[in-house]
C-alpha cells in the first residue's frame, strides 16, 4: 500500500499521568502506580493511532518526560542534581544536566516499552531516540569539552539501545535531530557521521527527524527570524541522500520550506509533515491531501509517508486525536485519486 501514514513520535499524555500542554511536565503518579500508568497510557496512545487509521505506530512517547533528557537520565557520567542553564538550539535557555565523567548506558532505556508495544499491535512500529547532536545540545559538557567527541560517545550508546530496540520488535528506529536545522557546519563536519554510527548495523528501517520544533513561543519567535523561505534543509539533504539512513522526517505543513528541496532526498523515504503541530486547529482532510499532492511533485508516491511536522505532546488530547484522523483521511483521499 502506498502513502502509509505515521507520526513523528509523541502524543499528549492523559491528564492523570502528567499535566497537559506542558513540556517536561512532572509525573502525577509514583512507584508501581506510575509504571502501570505509563503502560496504560501507551495502550491509549496506540488505540488512538489504530482507530484513526495510522499505519506505522509509536508508543506516543508516553514513558518520557522529555524526548532528550529522559534518555540522558539513564546514562552514567551525567549529573542531574546540579543543573546548569544553557542556551539550547541557539534559541532558549533551559536547565540541563551536566556531563561530569565518561558517559555510558546504565541500562536499556526504551526496550521494554517497545517489547510491550510489539505485544499490543500487529501494525508496524517505530521507536524514537534523540540524535547524538541534539543530545549534545541539550546538556552542559564539563568533561569531554568537545561537542564532536561527546556526540561520538553518544552515538555508540544510542547504537547499543537501537540494536536492542530492533531485537525487541521495532520495524523503524528514528533519531530526532532538530539540531540539524541549527548547526549546519557541524552537520557536515561530524553530525551525519555520528548519526550513521548511531544507526550502524541495523537491519530495520532507520530514520532521522529534522524539524523546526514544537509550537512553543521560543520556536515561533525563531521562525519569524528565518525569512520568507526556510532553506536549512538545502545543505543537509544532499548529505543525507548520500548517507546510509533510510528515511527522513521533515516539516511541510504551514512551513516556509520550499518543497523543491524535497527532491534533494532522491532515493530516500520521505516522511512528509502534513500536520501542523504548532496550532490547535484540526486540519481538514482536504488540506492534508493538498500538502501530500504538493510533495508528490518532488517525491515519488512509493517513497512518501504522510506524517506530522513534529511531536504532538504539547497539544490538547482531543486536538491531537483530530489531527491523527485528518492525517489518515487526507492520505486516503490521495490514495483514492491515484487509484491504489
Ligand atoms: Zn520535531
Structural class determined from secondary elements = alpha/beta
What percentage of residues falls in helices of 4 or more residues? 25-40%
Provide the number of structural domains: 1
CA radius of gyration is: 19 Å
Mean pLDDT: 96
CATH class: Alpha Beta
Separation of the first and last Cα atoms? 7 Å
Q: Based on Cα principal axes, name the global outline.
A: globular
State which percent range the strand residues make up.
15-25%
Q: What's the architecture, going by CATH? A: Alpha-Beta Barrel
What is the CATH T-level topology? TIM Barrel
- Please summarize the sheet with the most strands: 7 strands, parallel
Give a description of the structure.
With 340 residues, the protein is an alpha/beta fold. It contains 10 helices and 10 strands. The chain has one domain: TIM Barrel. It is 38% helix and 19% strand. The longest helix has 22 residues, at 31-52.
Amino acid at each position: 500500500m502506498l502513502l502509509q501514514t505515521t507520526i513523528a513520535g509523541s502524543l499528549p499524555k492523559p491528564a492523570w499521568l502528567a499535566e497537559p500542554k506542558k513540556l517536561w511536565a512532572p509525573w502525577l503518579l509514583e512507584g508501581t502506580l506510575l509504571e502501570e500508568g505509563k503502560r496504560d497510557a501507551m495502550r491509549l496512545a496506540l488505540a488512538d493511532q489504530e482507530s484513526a487509521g495510522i499505519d506505522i505506530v509509536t508508543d506516543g512517547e508516553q514513558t518520557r518526560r522529555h524526548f532528550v533528557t529522559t534518555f540522558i537520565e539513564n546514562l552514567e557520567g551525567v549529573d542531574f542534581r546540579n543543573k546548569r542553564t544553557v542556551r539550547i538550539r541557539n534559541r532558549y535557555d533551559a536547565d540541563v544536566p551536566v556531563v561530569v565523567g565518561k558517559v555510558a548506558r546504565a541500562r536499556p532505556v526504551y526496550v521494554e516499552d517497545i517489547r510491550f508495544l510489539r505485544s499490543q499491535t500487529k501494525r508496524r512500529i517505530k521507536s524514537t531516540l534523540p540524535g547524538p547532536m541534539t543530545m549534545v545540545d541539550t546538556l552542559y559538557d564539563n568533561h569531554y569539552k568537545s561537542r564532536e567527541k561527546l556526540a561520538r560517545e553518544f552515538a555508540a550508546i544510542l547504537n547499543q539501545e537501537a540494536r536492542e530496540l530492533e531485537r525487541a520488535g521495532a520495524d523503524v528506529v528514528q533519531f530526532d535531530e532538530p539540531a540539524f536545522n541549527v548547526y549546519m557546519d557541524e552537520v557536515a563536519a561530524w553530525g551525519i557521521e555520528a548519526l550513521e554510527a548511531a544507526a550502524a548495523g541495523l537491519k530495520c528501517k532507520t530514520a532521522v527527524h529534522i524539524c523546526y520544533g514544537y509550537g512553543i513561543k521560543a520556536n515561533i519567535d525563531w521562525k519569524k527570524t528565518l525569512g520568507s523561505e526556510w532553506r536549512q534543509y538545502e545543505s543537509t539533504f544532499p548529505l543525507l541522500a548520500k548517507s546510509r539512513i533510510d528515511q527522513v522526517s521533515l516539516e511541510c505543513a504551514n512551513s516556509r520550506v520550499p518543497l523543491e528541496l524535497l527532491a534533494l532526498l532522491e532515493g530516500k523515504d520521505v516522511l512528509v509533515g502534513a500536520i501542523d503541530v504548532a496550532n490547535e486547529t484540526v486540519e481538514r482532510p482536504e488540506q492534508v491531501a493538498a500538502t501530500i499532492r504538493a510533495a508528490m511533485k518532488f517525491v515519488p508516491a512509493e517513497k512518501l509517508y504522510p506524517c506530522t511536522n513534529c511531536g504532538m505532546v504539547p497539544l490538547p488530547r482531543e486536538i491531537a486525536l483530530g489531527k491523527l484522523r485528518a492525517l489518515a483521511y487526507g492520505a486516503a483521499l490521495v490514495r483514492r485519486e491515484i487509484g491504489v
